[in-house]
Design goal:
Layout (H helix, E strand, L loop, with lengths): L5 H11 L7 H19 L3 H10 L9 H4 L4 H13 L1 H11 L4 H12 L9 H13 L3 H11 L3 H8 L7 H19 L2
Bound molecules: fe (ii) ion (2 copies).
One fe (ii) ion binds next to helix 2.
Length: about 190
């Protein structure tokens, strides 16, 4: 593998444990994996896109636990908004610690804050949204979500199967993974 971003990972890991809705460590690892696979097909600058993947959900660490676990739609939405609002400050502090350039940091912040509630035209922002969505279909994430959400594999499969993508690469990998999950479910 190319760059490993170990230093960033070391700082991000303890923050991800504060995110309660599901296993965000597995989720974030799978988003990084999805990001690398999408870049392999679509191109893209890893020095922005890989840190953006690793840091995209770090904002959850500063959303109150109560709000994270809220069940009603209004507060769920508030939690989602907060995980975006809290992200820039955390990302700036963290990437400054590992000596990232200031302008690179701002570009990463820009990519991360666009991963919810927007339909961006810029490819680097679209790629993060695709990686976030695609990651949920990978084996590790898929069965981790089955546990976290207390749903059956088939229910999660139905839900995921409606996902849409910006890039051709993400869509192709998605269809392959979705197919594999279906085979696993049918063989049980
Ligand atoms: Fe997110
Ligand atoms: Fe995410």
């Amino acid at each position: 593998m190319e760059e490993s971003y170990q230093e960033i990972w070391k700082l991000v890991e303890p923050l991800l444990f504060k995110a309660k809705r599901k296993d965000f460590l597995i989720h974030t690892k799978m988003v990084e994996k999805a990001m690398r696979e999408i870049i392999a097909g679509e191109g893209g600058d890893t020095t922005f896109l890989i840190p953006a993947a690793i840091l995209h959900d770090v904002g959850w660490s500063e959303v109150s636990e109560k709000l994270q676990l809220a069940k009603d739609e209004e507060r769920k939405n508030k939690a989602l908004q907060e995980h975006i609002q809290k992200a820039p400050k955390i990302i700036r502090e963290l990437l400054t610690k590992v000596n990232y350039d200031k302008d690179k940091i701002e570009r990463i912040v820009d990519i991360v804050v666009a991963h919810k509630f927007t339909e961006p035209k810029e490819k680097e922002k679209q790629i993060l949204i695709d990686a976030d969505t695609l990651s949920d279909t990978y084996k590790e994430s898929f069965y981790s979500d089955v546990k976290s959400y207390g749903s059956t594999p088939r229910e999660i499969w139905e839900f995921r199967s409606k996902n849409t993508f910006y890039t051709k690469t993400a869509k192709e990998i998605f269809e392959r993974e979705l197919n594999d999950r279906q085979k696993e479910i049918n063989n049980k």
